[in-house]
Design a protein that fits this description.
This protein has helices at 2-26, 49-57, 76-88, 99-108, 120-123, 137-157, 172-177, 201-208, and strands at 164-167, 192-195, 215-217, 228-231, 237-239. With 245 residues, it is an alpha+beta fold. It has a 5-stranded mixed β-sheet, covered by helices on one side. The protein is globular. The N and C termini lie far apart (70 Å). The structure holds zinc ion (ZN). Residues 167, 186, 191, 193, 229 line the site of zinc ion (ZN). Zinc ion (ZN) is lined by residues 167, 186, 191, 193, 229.
């Protein structure tokens, strides 16, 4: 009886595997992407999971001091963000997400959906599971993904020079070990510390104001003279006195 159950399970698995392979083959259009493939043009008024996927990738284009909602509803703010994204990459800024927009997004993302210049490993040097923080592991990981898309926009706006992330997600244990604040956004997965490199810490802090970060802490703020911290906390708090912020 056990053996029969195993055989049944195996046949179900094989059937499921066949179905998966079949669906991949069916979806193998010219625009198929290892992460996500959009199947319709999106414009204002659209709603759905495909809009949510678009909004995650437009998170770095909300306009100065703003944050783009990731709610699956394509409204005026999403259209404005899309136009900024299109302009930033030399596309015609029509506010409609069609093939030119999707192809640019495919070119900008890796198969794990992270933007090409950042990785989950770079945003988490604490543990491999994203667990032990202030939110569920899956939430911390998706928060980090949103931060990476904002960083990709920041990077592009600053001339496509490298941006180095020196600390991202932290479990409580990792946060305590580095003396992080008790309510640190690093515990939520969306905090990222940026080191100086091609850009000064002040350049990073100032430019970050345009890319959807509610939290910006930089030089002159206690403990932040050797990095600029960005995050998406619930309400805006920007402080980098040395930079005039
Ligand atoms: Zn930090």
């Amino acid at each position: 009886m056990f053996g029969r159950a195993v055989r049944l399970l195996l046949s179900v698995v094989m059937l499921a595997t066949g179905l998966v392979v079949g669906s991949v083959a069916t979806a193998g259009t010219a625009h198929a992407d290892g992460c996500y493939t959009w199947t319709r043009t999106l414009s204002q008024g659209a709603s759905g999971a495909d809009v949510t996927q678009l909004q995650i990738r437009l998170g770095g284009y909300p306009g100065q001091g703003s944050v783009l909602a990731v709610d699956g509803a394509f409204g005026p703010a999403t259209m404005a963000a899309l136009k900024r994204f299109q302009s930033a990459y030399g596309l015609s800024a029509d506010g409609v997400a069609g093939n030119q927009t999707f192809n640019k997004l495919y070119a900008l993302q890796d198969d794990d959906c992270t933007p090409v210049h950042f990785s989950y490993a770079e945003l988490n040097r604490c543990n491999s599971t994203w667990s032990g923080g202030a939110v569920a592991a899956a939430t911390a990981r998706s928060n980090a993904l949103r931060t990476m898309w904002k960083l990709e926009a920041l990077r592009h706006a600053l001339g496509d020079q490298p941006i180095r992330v020196t600390s991202g997600f932290r479990s409580h244990a990792c946060n305590d070990a580095v003396g992080g604040a008790s309510g640190s956004r690093h515990l939520y997965g969306d905090g990222a510390d940026l080191g100086a490199g091609p850009h000064s810490l002040c350049t990073l802090a100032k430019q970050a104001r345009n890319h959807g970060f509610r939290g910006i802490l930089g030089p002159g703020y206690p403990g932040h003279n050797d990095h600029t911290h960005v995050d998406h906390r619930g309400s805006r708090y920007w402080s980098a006195p040395t930079c005039g912020i």
